[in-house]
Amino acid sequence: MIWSCRLCGSGIHSPALALGPLPICNDFNRKAVSDRRHDLDIVECETCQLVQLRDAPSPSLLSPAVPWIRYREPEGHLDALVTSLLALRPHARRVVGTGPFEQPLLSRLAAQGLQTHSVSLDTAAPAGRYPYLESWQATLNDAHLAALSAQHGTFDIVSCRYIVEHSPTPILALKALKKLISPDGLLLVEVPDSSKFLAACDYCFLWEEHSCYFVEDTLRELAHVSGYHVLALLRYPGALEDALVAVLAPRRESSGPPARGSSELFQIYRDSFSAQRGRLQARLRAAAGPERDGLALFGIGHHAIMFANACGVADMIALAVDDDADKAGFFPPGFRVPVVGSARLLADERITTCLFAVAPHIEGKVRDKLAPLAARGVAFRSIYAALDNAISKDLA
Ligand SMILES: [Zn+2]
Q1: Distance from first CA to last CA of the chain, Å, rounded?
Q2: Per-chain residues with Cβ under 5 A from ion ligand 1
Q3: How far is the CA of 216 from the centre of ligand 1 (A)?
Q4: Which is more confidently placed, 56 or 252?
């Protein structure tokens, strides 16, 4: 079977980074089973260089079976972003947010006197499922957005933050968003920039919910192919991922992306995986010890879960630690132990290594909380390959 690129439509023939049938990261269960799995193959288009899932799982497979799955997206740059937006459209009056990450931006624009509107997710959920991002991304289609526009009119600013990378059909999504844009209006598309984690050979950022892994060039091409001018492409630095914001104005014509050839960035990323996994397994097996009781993992989100399952180390983890009360008692998908709070970690004398899967800006707070562990010689290492204390790095 020949797979075609989600961005340029060319056939993709280059080998995939094949991670195998991995459990869906939001599949928390009361028992140590995970029935929902997907073959995760990551490829790069050798024509336009978009890194993408070869085969995106269906929304029905992804839809969470617990009501508390929620993600956080960066907000620290939003004051600066508002300034940039209003400089481009000083007379903007009406703004709409098209997903669940819009309120922090809408509040700031409301404070500047704009009339804000947020869309709600009103899909009929099957029994026992709690629709989230997989369902939000599916609302970015012609019929739905035409109905919204008929009901609420068009908007001077249409904001779409952290949803487009979830869409298996990003061009159709951007084209459909034109229905909401007023004649002189603009579209804001914000996505995570993938270049840092690709360069660091960090595999925990891969995710069955992200169909596309954009970098600046491919986000720009997405805009062009979907029929937009790029008014601004803004980058806001993050320790692990930068935020990329494309500010776009619709135009009539669209253009195909140039042929670029495969990138060294992805080839190295793909080809380094198996050695990296082997090294991690050896290191963590040693840390876990013969009784497999020495290793804890702190911060049980989709990065931690992907790290454990993609690298094949989930069964080495003796304590899965997270202080989110919603997660307590649930088995993270692929794990043999349920989530416990940090009190359990502090009380467990067998733990010798604690892996951190927490954002770098809160790692200091976590270290303070876990100071008694450090005092008795427990090693703290990060799952994030770009950080100085990464478990994948050789420390002196
Ligand atoms: Zn392509």
Answers
A1: 47
A2: 5, 7-8, 10, 45, 47-48
A3: 14
A4: 56
